[in-house]
Amino acid sequence: MTARELKAQLRNERLAARNGITPEERISKSLAMADHAGEAVAFSPGTIVSGFLPIRSEADLRPLMAQFAARGARLCVPAILDKQTIAFRELTEGVPLIDTGFGTVGPGAEAAILDPEIMLVPLSAFDARGHRIGYGAGYYDRAISRLREKGLHPKLIGIAFDCQEVAHVPDEPHDISLDAILTESGLRFFASWIG
């Protein structure tokens, strides 16, 4: 089995496990994530943090993002611009949300485009080394690569439930690893910048 085939198998298995979490459990697990990371992630006021608004069975990051905003973070969320590109539009209180592609909602094209300094990254599977499997379209990998080409090095925090952990993600040279992973059990660090 190739690395690509194994990733697809792990993606399907872990997303099926995530889909098995009841809506009530998802709420309590999402609130636990906010409790674990709301004060633990170090940043200065004005830091740009990208989150995401939940689709399908993803964790609901709105409580965590509200805590970050209360600490002075500037929030943004992804919008799909085309089949290759996402941009991060500023999310401000009271801004109307529209369909932004791939089942997501967010601010419209009039919102400022921001370059995140900390990224909360959705994923389908992860391992204890900080390697992740995304959803298969490569949007985040390309967005992170574009930021790095601009000389920026966003800190990457994977967002998942415990049931999405696997023993080993087959990593390839183009894969970008995480600095930390946040689940309902806590915030695990793969880099020292966070604490």
Quick take:
With 195 residues, the chain is of the alpha/beta class.
What does the model show?
This protein is α/β, with parallel strands linked by helices. Helix content is 27%, strand content 24%. The strands form three sheets. An eight-stranded mixed beta sheet has the order 6-3-2-1-7-10-11-12, with helices on both faces. It has a two-stranded antiparallel ribbon with strand order 4-5. Strand 2 and strand 3 (86-90) form a beta hairpin. Helix 2 runs parallel beside helix 3. The longest helix is centred in the first third of the chain and has 17 residues, at 3-19. The chain starts with a helix and ends in a 6-residue tail after the last strand. The model has no long low-confidence stretch (mean pLDDT 94).
Detail the topology: elements first, then pairings:
Blueprint: H1 3-19, H2 23-37, E1 48-50, H3 62-70, E2 74-80, E3 86-90, E4 98-101, E5 104-106, E6 113-114, E7 118-122, E8 125-126, E9 132-133, H4 139-149, E10 155-159, E11 180-183, E12 186-189
Parallel strand pairs: 1-2, 1-7, 7-10, 10-11
Antiparallel strand pairs: 2-3, 3-6, 4-5, 8-9, 11-12
Helix pairs in contact: 2-3
Q: How many distinct helices?
A: 4
Summarize the biggest pleated sheet: 8 strands, mixed
**In what order do the strands lie side by side in the largest sheet?**
6-3-2-1-7-10-11-12
Show unreliable segments: none
Category by helix and strand content: alpha/beta
Give the strand content. 15-25%
Which sequence of SSEs, written as H and E, runs from N to C?
HHEHEEEEEEEEHEEE
* Net shape: globular
Q: Please state the average pLDDT score.
A: 94
Instruction: Let me know the number of strands.
Output: 12
Q: State the end-to-end distance.
A: 38 Å
Percent helix, as a range, is 25-40%
C-alpha-based Rg, rounded: 16 Å
